[in-house]
């Protein structure tokens, strides 16, 4: 999927969503699209690129779905299988939650700042491909969503506070897009691990819907297997983003999030 490069790649648009009076999360910012091809040399920080190959990535998908050239490796298996629940185990006394709210770089930083959050990881979930790469997901054919898996201490911060951050960070009324980022991998999603999380998510959606005059399209589904994204995506903005300007992940920080650094 090709996305147009906006005139200013370091700015973000403010969300039209109304903030809840009980939320302490700063106003959200939309991301601008990212160029899909980079011709520059590698730098210490990953550049603002959405790499898409017109040949290699689609062929990779065909091979993984069993339509490409058969491998002579006897250990190779068909990887186009429905993915089961996330069976990773959080740290003792901690809980997991998964959120999809557009490009995972800025979403992760928003969650890093929430009290009670002890760990964040960006990755891919809800798809049919085993061990997808970033290039695979960018084709839009694997069904995956870009998600942030949050580990939090329920004694130090509630799941409801994570929901506040989720709603404040993105526009849940745009189907398969956030700003100029278009594709199913940018869809809005709440992925629960427990019945309590599911109930809280549905109640929270109902409250948000009353604040908006457009229909919320957020999907609420059980959390499926989480595939950790490539290392350069992890804590991307905290590490410096595109331009090497580190952004604070301190708890309670309200600094505007520069979408790509």
UniProtKB/TrEMBL annotation:
Tell me the Gene Ontology biological-process terms attached to this UniProt entry: cellular response to oxidative stress
EC main group: oxidoreductase
UniProt catalytic activity: L-methionyl-[protein] + [thioredoxin]-disulfide + H2O = L-methionyl-(S)-S-oxide-[protein] + [thioredoxin]-dithiol; [thioredoxin]-disulfide + L-methionine + H2O = L-methionine (S)-S-oxide + [thioredoxin]-dithiol
Q: Which Gene3D superfamilies match?
A: Peptide methionine sulphoxide reductase MsrA
* Spans annotated as Disordered: 70-92
Keywords attached to this Swiss-Prot or TrEMBL record, sorted alphabetically, are:
Oxidoreductase
Q: Where is the Peptide methionine sulphoxide reductase MsrA domain?
A: 97-239
UniProt record similarity statement: Belongs to the MsrA Met sulfoxide reductase family.
Alphabetical list of HAMAP family matching this protein:
MsrA
What protein name is recorded for this chain? peptide-methionine (S)-S-oxide reductase
**Protein species of origin:** Tripterygium wilfordii (Thunder God vine)
